[in-house]
Amino acid sequence: MADSTAPSVADEILQRDILPTIFPGPPSATPVVVLVAGQPGAGRGRVAARIAATEGATALSGDELRAFHPITQSEHLLSGEQQQEVATATAGWLRDCLRYARTNGHSVVLEGAFTDAAVVRGTAAQFAAAGFGTRVAVVGARRADSLLAVLSHYLRNVQASNPATYTSRSAHDAGFGGTRALVAAIEADPAADRLTVVDGRGDIVFDAARHDAGAFAGASAALAVAQGGRMSRLESTQWLSELHHVTAFAQSQRRLPRDVAETLVELHEIALSEVIPQLHVPAGARFAEMTARTTSARLAALRESLVGPVQPDAAAPVVVPAGPERGGISR
Q1: Any idea of the CA torsion for 206, 134, 185, 145, to the nearest 10 degrees?
Q2: Is pLDDT above 60 for 75?
Q3: From start to end of the chain, where are the E strands?
Q4: Residues 6+ apart with CB under 8 A from 208
Q5: Measured between alpha carbons, how far is 164 from 155 in angstroms, rounded to an integer?
Q6: Is domain 7-227 in CATH 3.40.50.300, yes or no?
Q7: Burial, 226: exposed, middle or buried (Cβ in 10 Å; 0-12, 13-18, 19+)?
Q8: Full-prediction pTM beyond 0.85?
């Protein structure tokens, strides 16, 4: 639909479909805005949904809003131009939904990478001026977990022939580092009434209300522990299993975007250097040795595929520096 995001059409979709669906109930008696931050693949959506249920708030995300775009109903993978069209419309709808919530007193939970602390500070200030309580919740997931989740979600959509966008490693890592910078900024100069840090398992590892200049001391340390925590044996086994399924499907494809192939290489390097050693099995155990050999062989094959230039498939999904949350090719 060529004119599907023309201002008049986009506003019609907003008024007719989005606002009645997203905000079906009355305003909140004591409205609150919660900004849920974390790198792509960290599990922000799960944390946002849980907080929304606790606060009686509406959870907002670009993934949910993009589903209202007519183009996303197509059974075909989206072109780069269509991806940009959807992204532009979604950004506008998200902005309009936030304005509607702030103006009408609806509690709202918004998830995003939030790599710019100034944006968080400005958003919190706008809602505070409208009489809202303000809270920032940060998801501290391990980089290995979120990087695999991003890749897995992308390939799962490719496998299902769904519209697929891939979050580049640079965008992922900007979110990972930006999360640390955000917490450090809020710890030094509180920008919200409450700051919460949640680890990758969903457990709260820091939670404090603003009452004086030092109220959020220790938040950065809590985040660093969460992002750098060791995997349990079960977590390591599940991670390796997911990597196996992801790799098997990826290698069955005629061609892969280069960044996807490079991410697979890095994930296998992470498997050998970080994950397999965390299996917590006796030295020389057969399972660990076999897993290491298999992983090394796959890594060699993946590196070999990158020796020559990897040409993107014209029919393949376009890699763009933004993407959805988590997923699992084997789940």
Answers
A1: 50
A2: no
A3: 32-37, 58-60, 108-112, 133-140, 194-199, 204-209
A4: 194, 195, 215, 216, 219
A5: 8
A6: yes
A7: buried
A8: no
